[in-house]
Amino acid sequence: MTRKMTGAKMIVQALIDQGVDTIFGYPGGAVLPIYDEVFQQNSIKHVLVRHEQGAVHAAEGYARSTGKPGVVLVTSGPGATNAVTGLTDALLDSIPLVVLTGQVPTFMIGSDAFQEADTVGITRPCTKHNWLVKDTDKLAGVLHEAFHVATSGRPGPVLVDIPKDVQFATGQYEPKKPSVSHYQPPVKGDMAAITELVEAIESAKRPVFYTGGGVINSGPAASQLLRELVEATGFPITSTLMGLGCYPASGDKWLGMLGMHGLYEANMAMHDCDLMINVGARFDDRITGVVDMFSPKSKKAHIDIDPSSINKIIRVDIPIVGDVGHVLEDMLKIWKSRGRKTNSEAVAKWWKKINEWRSIDCLKFEQKGKIIKPQYALSRLEALTKKYDRYICTEVGQHQMWAAQYLNFEDPNRWMTSGGLGTMGYGFPASIGVQMAHPDALVINVAGEASWLMNMQEMGTAMQYGLPVKQFILNNERLGMVRQWQELLHGERYSQSWSESLPDFVKLAEAFGAKGILCSDPDDLDDAIMEMLTYNGPVIFDCLVEKHENCFPMIPSGKAHNDMMLAGVDTQGVIDAKGSVLV
Amino acid sequence: MSPLKIKKGSTSHSAYNLRPNFSDVIERHTLAVLVENEPGVLARVIGLFSGRGYNIDSLTVAEVDHTGHLSRITIVTSGTPQVIEQIKAQLGRIVPVHEVHDLTVEGPSVERELAMFKVSGTGDKRVEALRLADIFRANVVDSTLETFVFEITGAPEKIDAFAELMRPLGLKDVARTGVAALPRGD
């Protein structure tokens, strides 16, 4: 059944038909007809952000924590250009988003009209696909297709640009129906390749699962299958930053995160393994280090839904194009039917080796003196919040790596961070999106003060919607990661990497009507964290930490996985002289 | 923590030290890409090449199926085998792209290009130009007392050869369509 309605009404109707309950946006001239329709309905909640970048990151947080696409509504020109960073972030981390932008009327396109920008041109390289709709009759079809494209295959952001006259005009509404477009990425992997991988699993002596965000994107069932496979084979498992939570951190096969600031045992296992099973990860440069020296002795299998990820950076022996969940299901079936074989004797020896690496305890730190170590702050946050229904967001930098190292994730969709693009200012708006989706959960944004300031205007949003997001700021008054690189690689010349005029975060919180907590003494930390957790409302927690703490372990660029730097001066004596450049 | 010992001017401490040890032999491939003829589709294809640093040696595009609104883009590109594989995979994931064919590896194919040459001259040179055009089966499509415009169709190498011969005879202007290609047989 089709119905006649205005373009603006169609947009709201299409969102309702797609099951959308929340949109993030900011009004403006070119979207006024849509906002008029938003006003006249109660099915969809609209969250008014304070900057369009915040809207996109909030939608990312919503999407990442629910598995549903996030929806954004912004105006033309600056509204659209402000969304570009968020779109690029979502593209690199494969987050499904549907972004609706207003556009000047069709007859004014190209005339340099007020608030006109070539939105589809600007966003073409930072979306999975985009559309400019010039005909109201086609609008509903495009909107439904937009949801289909955003969520099929490798997920990603899409954008629909809608001129104002198209919003006003009346046309036929096409209801949602199964997509008939040619875009139907296959989800099933090639059975011959899967069987080849099963054979490799049966004989592997030093196997490792290398998992990534693709497991999370595939849905909770994929994480479940992965857990079953790991437990059944007894193989060790590591994960990228984006994949944290796909296997529980409390599981005994868990090696921790790998990569530039990954755990020693994880990186060593990657380097020395004889079978690497990449499940939904993409051999990012933060993972591989120097590619020539990346895991030289291993046979590599790669499960990825995106054919362009295969052999892009690392040549693999067993490529499997398909959805992680489907491929793991087939893999388990074949492996079980062939008698559940592994080379358990060799794998036991492999675990002995791994346990030797583990015994180095690469995340060890010592909290002494009256200055809070960032690692200590996060260890206490972990200890005091792990029994909560908890979601963690982060900004980008040292605190992000420490959060990945010291917080434990038991389930998928609990960890929202900007991995590929490394967008400072991501975490705070993302935490707003997560809290909208999970009103009763504990949502914490682990932040650095510099990142946090990049989107601090969203305090207004948190207050307006009563979102009790906890902003846990590790304040070192530095751009910590930049400073660390300057220390290690640029002769300790700290060019522009500190801030001389930081705000008083407690007063800042109070100015917005939120709660501010300052903590500078390790002895007060637990009480202060408890105060944050028990306060029913947004909190800015200003945790003053050691200013020149470095984030270790670290694979210095230009080095291989087995060439890690472990913790610095304080722990050097404990590890011994060879410690800092262990082979 | 002491600073890492890195030679001044060295690039080995770049954060993007990505030089995979793949084959570095440059190959030339002709790709046929079937796309939905919707606004911006050519920009998507070209943007992919410029954004990811791939080469376009030649590109032709026209709608080939008016009822199905399908266009055929023929791209001649060059790169290492790994880059060619990436180009094909990247093209394949553009949403309005239906099919990607590598005519260079998918069996024998025929390639043709159309070109127009304006040659200006008098006396012997003018006669010689006309004689060579005849040998190359180029047609005269326009003539004045001083100029000819030749139309020539053939493989790109043949057109290159004809251009070389015309240059000393007063070659003024060249327009080339770029390569169109189809696989041979079934």
Please, could you describe this protein's structure?
The complex is a heterodimer of chains A (583) and B (186). Chain A has 583 residues and is an alpha/beta fold. In chain A, the strands form 4 sheets. Chain A has a 6-stranded parallel beta sheet. In chain A, strands 11-10-9-12-13-14 form a 6-stranded parallel beta sheet, with helices on both faces. In chain A, strands 16-15-17-18-20-19 form a 6-stranded parallel beta sheet, with helices on both faces. Residues 569-583 of chain A have low confidence and may be disordered. With 186 residues, chain B is of the alpha+beta class. In chain B, strands 5, 6, 7, 8 and 9 form a 5-stranded antiparallel beta sheet that branches. Chain B has a 4-stranded antiparallel beta sheet with strand order 2-3-1-4. The longest helix of chain B is centred in the C-terminal third of the chain and has 13 residues, at 123-135. Residues 1-13 of chain B have low confidence and may be disordered. Chains A and B meet through β6 and α21 of A and α1 and α2 of B.
Strand order of the largest sheet of chain A: 3-2-4-5-7-6
- Work out the strand percent of chain B: 35-45%
Q: Taking all residues together, what is the mean pLDDT of chain B? A: 90
Radius of gyration of chain B: 22 Å
Work out the strand percent of chain A: 15-25%
Total beta strands of chain B = 9
Shape of chain B: elongated
Would you count the extended β strands of chain A for me?
20
Question: Could you report the average pLDDT of chain A, rounded to the nearest whole number?
Answer: 95
The helicity of chain A comes to: 25-40%
State the end-to-end CA separation of chain A: 68 Å
Order of helices and strands of chain B: EHEEHEEHEEHEE
Biggest sheet architecture of chain B? 5 strands, antiparallel
**Parts with pLDDT < 50 across at least 5 consecutive residues of chain A:** 569-583
Q: What is the count of helical runs of chain A? A: 24
End-to-end separation of chain B in angstroms reads 67 Å
Helix share bin of chain B? 25-40%
Major sheet details of chain A: 6 strands, parallel
- Measured on Cα atoms, how large is the radius of gyration of chain A? 25 Å
